[in-house]
Amino acid sequence: MELKNITEVLMLFDYYKNLLSEKQKKYIEAYFEEDYSLSEIAEANNVSRQAISDNINRTVKLLKNYEKNLGFLKRDEIIKSKLEIILMDKNIDEIREIIKLLEA
């Protein structure tokens, strides 16, 4: 998996991990955050390497689906970019627009 994709998965995991099962959290954390191999995770959990791979792939798809339907990461990225513009321009109207977005 490319670094860009790993970063995306970790960001989505931060947003939506509370919607995952304990097993899904454990496998994603071990694989993406702790850099364990599929074989190491499988051995530690007494399951096959393929079971771990399937679970991780399903969980990544699930995280992407949560973002597609809920859009919290995208919303926060938009707000961040608007705030960066405001910092440069010191634009009060932009601040009001962001506050309206947050209230919605």
Would you mind describing this structure in some detail?
With 104 residues, this protein is mostly helical. It folds into two domains: 70 residues, Winged helix-like DNA-binding domain superfamily/Winged helix DNA-binding domain (Arc Repressor Mutant, subunit A, Orthogonal Bundle), CATH 1.10.10; 34 residues, no CATH class. The chain has six helices and no strands. Helix 1 packs antiparallel against helix 2, helix 2 crosses helix 4 and helix 5 packs antiparallel against helix 6. It is elongated. The two termini are 36 Å apart. The mean pLDDT is 90.
- How helical, in percent, are the residues? over 70%
Please report which band the strand proportion falls in: under 5%, 5-15%, 15-25%, 25-35%, 35-45% or over 45%. under 5%
CATH homolog superfamily of the largest domain: Winged helix-like DNA-binding domain superfamily/Winged helix DNA-binding domain
Specify the CATH class of the largest domain: Mainly Alpha
Alpha carbon gap, first and last residue: 36 Å
Gist of the model:
This protein is 83% helix and 0% strand.
Notable traits:
single chain, 104 residues, Arc Repressor Mutant, subunit A, 2 domains
